[in-house]
Amino acid sequence: MKFQSSSNELLKHLQIAQGSISNNPVIPILEAFLFKLENGLLQITASDLETTIITEVKVTSDQSGVIAVPAKILVETLKALPSQPIDFDADDETNAITITSAYGKYKLSGENGADYPETPIASDALSVTLPSSLLNLAINTTIFATTSDELRPAMTGVYFQIEPNAMTFVATDAHKLVKFVLKIDNKDISTTFIVPKKALNLLKSALAVSETVSIRFNKKNAFFNFGDYLLACRLIDGRFPDYNAVIPVDNPNMMSINRLDFLNSLKRLAIYANKTTNQVLLKIEKSELKISSQDLDFSNEAEESIKCEFSGDSMHIAFNAKFLIEMLSVLNEETVVLEMSVPNRAGILKPAEQDPGQDMLMLVMPVMLNTAN
Question: Could you tell me the strand order of the sheet in which 51-58 lies?
Fold first, then answer.
């Protein structure tokens, strides 16, 4: 098995595929890439059995073959080389590999490609298509709200709810929740599934804005096709919480405020907050928001005032500054609205103006008011 390729072009695809390889693989061969060469096209597969990435690169070759190539040493070698043509030569009997560059030769040991696990097949799969820019936006605005608590597996991923006229993406860790709705035509499809965080993080790094993504799914797996890539992942088997039940619908107190002013103020005040609760207190009047924080253990405290527009009764409500900072950081709009009812009920953060065909909602639970405030 021989081929010639650009080192940079090969490295670009390998680095994206490498993201699916586990640091502690279930079986040793999963530390390797699977190379399949046929008709001048090199197919590269990387997997941890839960998430699989397959990509294709055009190479110069009139041969065919299959071999498993150690991922780490190959990527590190190509990263250390300036952009140049390289020759890849694998012995079909011994699995010995030789890479030749303008600087010299590098030898490494491969494995029999036939021993590499089979990849999932999209049998009995339904499919929807959407612009990759919108999928990327949906991932970026929800993934931070997932939990890392393995005792609640359904909440470690993002919930996809597909309906004939919309796709809804939801993530929550029980302290914060994000719901993002895209109004798109999905024909007559109605289904739900939960995509793991790892697969979505890999999608974020691989999606190109100009591409369209085809999403196929069955009861066990989801398949994302875009450009030269296919990402397949095993879906999370679990029941997602009834998120609509926790979203308050009657929120008469509404504050409109500049997003960056609010975000930067919270970043400064978080420095002075208690490191366990990260509590900041919001005191809201008609045209002014006062934000304060304190850490009694170290006698630290700070307070700032920001102009805002507020309708409703004056309020004192406390939130975790870290959660608000995460939410405000993923939004892009100049002005945001914080809707509230009473100090012990969740607040709703939204863009002041929603983009056409989109509906964004972020929920954050309050923290107990520190009476010393």
Answer: 111-112, 65-70, 32-38, 41-47, 51-58, 229-234, 221-226, 212-217, 126-131
